[in-house]
Amino acid sequence: MGGIHEDIALRDRAPVFRDRDDAGRQLGRYLATFPGLDDPLACPIPAGGIPVGIAVARALGCPVRPVIVRKIQIPWNTEAGFGAVAWDGHVFLNKDLLSQLHLTPDQVEAATAKARANVREREQRLNQRLGGPLPDPAGRSCILVDDGLASGYTMAAACQALRPLGPLRIVVAVPTGSLSSVRQVGELAEEVICLNIRTGPSFAVADAYREWYDLTEEEGVRMLLDGWNRGRSGRE
What we know:
The structure is a single chain. This protein is an alpha/beta fold. Helices cover 36% and strands 21% of the residues. The protein has 7 helices and 8 strands, in the order βαβαβββααβαβαβα. The strands form 2 sheets. It has a 5-stranded parallel beta sheet with strand order 1-8-7-6-2, sandwiched between helices. The chain has a 3-stranded antiparallel beta sheet with strand order 3-4-5. α1 packs parallel to α2 (49-60). The two termini are 30 Å apart.
């Protein structure tokens, strides 16, 4: 398991951040003193991870490479998922949850195919808007960023999809997360940094923020186009 790092003063507190930008600034300050981040690359998961990732990139003076990951939705509850699909088509399933849902193989396949198609479409749109190839993660300290870890399966899929691209190391950096998800992701990354770890019986990412709303894909793209896309600093 990789190392797990937190701000112990924030353990089990909520809310602790004003908004995603504030959370990213605090995370960026922490990362700026973190050892061994050679040639860093911020890799936020759209859409909610974009403002957090941009703030991290500013603190480190590094480029941004968004990574597209989509949860596989439960048919009768689209707010929840039983796994995730990454930009390379990799599927990561929560097998324990699946055994409780009693979905048929056809339902699992249909939900997975829907998520895979969504990822493909979103990546195509993002590449078109950003206007060229994204920074290469090979040989870099890749910092996977999101606005929080709830189930952890989206981030787990991102870790597994990024590994074959040859990063020097994978660091997961999030403002908030449940302890169980932080530990799960710690099995797949060299380091996990989660400022606000919470251990209660229920967890919602939004509870860590005083100002919270669902960021749209278009808003995230506009943020990237506003000066922090495709390696504005650093090499491509």
